[in-house]
Design a protein that fits this description.
Length: 240
Amino acid sequence: MTDVEGLQPVDEDWQKALAVIAHPDDMEFGSAAAVARWTAQGKEVVYCLLTSGEAGIDGVPPEKSGPLREAEQIESSRIVGVSQVEFLGQPDGTIEYGVPLRRVIAEVIRRHQPEIVITNNFHDTWGGDGNLNQADHINTGRATIDAVRDAANRWIFPDVGERWGGVRQVWAAGSPNAKHAVDTTDTFDIGVQSLNAHRVYIDGLNWPHFDPTEFLEGVSRPAGTLLGTRYATRFEVITP
């Protein structure tokens, strides 16, 4: 939970965003309704997934799980109006922060030239309950922030495209330090549909009583209360 009394609206005066995340389903567990809002406004959002989530289902071997999860991600993205989805082939579960990962992400930023970059919570925990974050999320988020700066510096990674200094902000979804949010009241149901598209993954987690609507309400309603709306998605806003 955030310590602030309320949440401020994010700046929506932009046209193109790039989401850099670790796994299929990372956007859908909280941010997909926000993306649906933005694509409905005519904005362009591109998804870049470092892995295919191939190690995410205990009962399905990676060579089968990866293609299944890619297909679910493509469908869940389509539901919220995202047509460009890239999978970069990093190893699921063992993403390492470092110069090679920064290079990979900087190349994507330079190629797509976004104004806003979205990533996931890069902190060690999810907040007040103390639940530990995954290393893949942490390393992806931290490398993404650094890669935004790298992409703007012509002397860093000059072999992966022309510099792009047009990223105005990085937004970390699910961050315990979030002080901003976006109203997702009108697109909440679309976000639920997008999460439901990950049915093979959800079933593979063996959560027999998991309800996507209930889960998303649990994170979206408190954020909406702090923003003054019914539902909202929180973001930590970082200026490079």
